[in-house]
What does this fold into?
Amino acid sequence: MSLSLARTLNLGRIARTPAVWGKRYLAQEAVGKMSAQAVVEQTWASAHAKNPAFAVERELPLPRSRKREVGIFIAVAVVTWGFGSVIAFNYQRMTSTPVTAALFTARHNNDVCRELGRQLNFTSAFPWISGDISHLKGFVDAEFDVVGDKGIVGHLVLKSRRTGKQNGEWHTIEFYVSMPDGRKLDCNV
It folds into this structure.
């Protein structure tokens, strides 16, 4: 085997310390005179030789169980996905057509404006919209808190059903703003 082939295969490599540079040169010279099989055997033997400068003879530790870490990760992932799903579904209800239309109608109702104020809106940036909204099944049951510029908090309730199939007519069953003192301000148009 030639010296260039040995360099290509990296078979003549020895540690790069000043103490073994001479050995490295001798090993490269020897590679030029040895057969490929002999070079592989010598490299294999030198790679598996016991070298106290580079190896510590001791028992390897047993791998520790990661069941607890994996369990904690799965629990955190499930809680995160669950919380994200709840927030996403609530946001979908908040931006749905019935809720935005109900808030718009309540904003322009004279009785509601007189009691709560003109700037009627949700009580927070991300309000909780309770109830169900299903355009496919034909029902809307939505409740949420609203506040006007007077600072009084009211509770808006909208219940509506669709008669007939997909293109049926919607009928409002209840649509009012409940005041803190128990009065109900009707918002039906």
